């Protein structure tokens, strides 16, 4: 496949500045660098085709180059219309990776790019939110014939995959990368926590200290967002539907209440639930003038945008990535990045060192799938613990951290039921 001929990108002339971004990321990804050295020598994916649907920015480019260096032909598309960086896309094409992506495409273009990626007839896929898997099963089963399996990046995607598995509709195995300890403990918590506030702060240029931040959902991403908000000096309120998560948020020192009550108090609202319309009309009517809404879930459905527009007398962009809605009583509600992922649509996404661990998992799980897909069956597989631990060990070694090991006596004691 000729990447330059087949790709659909904004402008190949942007490649030099994209290359600078990718090189910077490589300098801060010790896990991927270690894997790259090994995979370049062994070429375990020689002759394979791999389709990747992820947020197309510099860190994702490093993963794509790693898989290319392992011998595969790689085709990449974006998993969010506002997170694709055109210069990074150009740099990948210049290095032989096929790319179908542009920043802010129309909905039809966005879907077309994903389908075009699947038309390369991949053997393996890396998905984000289940988009590629959904297209293959619901719209283009004719493109599924070579697919051995793949890996899923997000909570949202794994929920969709498990629903397909439960209904007996999943036609190939997928590894739920998001459920690895080396993913959700770091990427979801520290990555989301820092990057969401990076996006909000650079976009609004407003102080957080002393204000009330409402975090809607207290999973691992919500934990991270709440933790960082507290660090910035905010008064943090958590809303939840799960009693255990709500109890945990309470013991972590946060106020917990129904969202209808929190709507009256919040200055900032960040949704991290994976569900739809968790903020809607009844909440808009209760919010303060100037309330700021942001989403950190995969899809732009958590904040009910049609409902907000329907009760507004004016809608205008008042600052890059901020849309202002003026309600009939004159109150203003501000939405960041059209309700899409605030950390990517209004920022650069998770810190590089965090994504180094996540993409280390993706690469190792893809190799595992290639070797074991026939044994797995059509189901969602948890990341094997040895892969999870291996990535954590790579990370520790890269940071000069040593840990203890059990001696023989201790191993025997733990293996025995006798005291």
From TrEMBL:
Pfam families: AdoHcyase, AdoHcyase_NAD. The keyword NADP does not apply. Its EC number is 3.13.2.1. It comes from the Bacteria. It is found in: Cytoplasm. One of its GO terms (molecular function) is adenosylhomocysteinase activity. One of its GO terms (cellular component) is cytosol. Its main location: cytoplasm. CDD domains: SAHH. GO terms for biological process: L-homocysteine biosynthetic process; one-carbon metabolic process; S-adenosylmethionine cycle. InterPro entries: Adenosylhomocyst_ase-like_sf, Adenosylhomocysteinase-like, Ado_hCys_hydrolase_NAD-bd, NAD(P)-bd_dom_sf, S-Ado-L-homoCys_hydrolase_CS. Keywords: Cytoplasm, Hydrolase, NAD, One-carbon metabolism. NAD(+) binds at residues 154-156, 188, 217-224, 240, 275, 296-298, 343, 350. It catalyses: S-adenosyl-L-homocysteine + H2O = L-homocysteine + adenosine. Pathway: Amino-acid biosynthesis; L-homocysteine biosynthesis; L-homocysteine from S-adenosyl-L-homocysteine: step 1/1. Substrate binds at residues 128, 153, 183, 187. Its cofactor is NAD(+). Binds 1 NAD(+) per subunit. Belongs to the adenosylhomocysteinase family. May play a key role in the regulation of the intracellular concentration of adenosylhomocysteine. This is Adenosylhomocysteinase. It comes from Seinonella peptonophila. The lineage of its organism: Bacteria, Bacillati, Bacillota, Bacilli, Bacillales. The gene is ahcY.
């Amino acid at each position: 496949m000729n990447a330059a001929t087949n790709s659909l990108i904004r402008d190949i002339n942007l490649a030099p500045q994209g290359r600078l971004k990718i090189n910077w990321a490589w300098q801060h990804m010790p896990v991927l660098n270690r894997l790259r050295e090994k995979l370049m020598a062994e070429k375990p994916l020689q002759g394979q085709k791999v389709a990747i649907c992820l947020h197309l920015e510099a860190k994702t480019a490093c993963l794509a180059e790693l898989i290319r260096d392992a011998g595969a032909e790689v085709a990449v598309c974006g998993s969010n219309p506002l997170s694709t960086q055109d210069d990074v896309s150009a740099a990948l094409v210049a290095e032989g990776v096929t790319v179908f992506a542009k920043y802010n495409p129309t909905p039809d273009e966005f879907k077309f790019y994903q389908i075009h990626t699947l038309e390369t007839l991949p053997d393996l896929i890396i998905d984000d939110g289940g988009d590629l898997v959904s297209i293959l099963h619901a719209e283009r089963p004719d493109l599924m014939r070579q697919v051995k399996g793949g890996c899923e990046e997000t909570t949202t995607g794994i929920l969709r995959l498990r629903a397909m598995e439960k209904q007996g509709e999943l036609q190939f195995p997928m590894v739920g990368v998001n459920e690895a300890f080396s993913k959700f403990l770091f990427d979801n918590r520290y990555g989301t926590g820092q990057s969401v506030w990076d996006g909000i702060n650079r976009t609004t240029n407003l102080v957080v200290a002393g204000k009330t931040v409402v975090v809607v959902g207290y999973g691992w991403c919500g934990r991270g967002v709440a933790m960082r908000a507290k660090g910035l000096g905010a008064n943090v309120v958590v809303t939840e539907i799960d009693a255990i998560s709500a109890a945990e948020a309470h013991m972590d020192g946060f106020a917990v209440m129904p969202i209808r009550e929190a709507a009256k108090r919040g200055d900032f609202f960040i949704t991290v639930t994976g569900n739809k319309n968790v903020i809607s009309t009844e909440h808009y009517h209760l919010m303060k003038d100037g309330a700021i809404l942001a989403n950190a879930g995969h899809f732009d459905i958590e904040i009910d945008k049609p409902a907000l527009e329907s009760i507004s007398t004016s809608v205008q962009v008042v600052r890059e990535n901020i849309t202002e809605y003026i309600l009939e009583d004159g109150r203003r509600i501000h939405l960041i990045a059209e309700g899409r992922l605030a950390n990517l649509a209004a920022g650069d996404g998770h810190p590089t060192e965090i994504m180094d661990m996540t993409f280390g998992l993706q690469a190792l799980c893809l190799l595992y799938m290639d070797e074991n897909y026939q044994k797995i069956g059509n189901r969602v597989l948890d990341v094997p613990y040895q892969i999870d631990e291996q990535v954590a060990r790579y990370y520790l070694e890269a940071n000069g951290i040593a840990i203890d090991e059990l001696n023989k006596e201790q191993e025997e004691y733990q293996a025995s039921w006798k005291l």
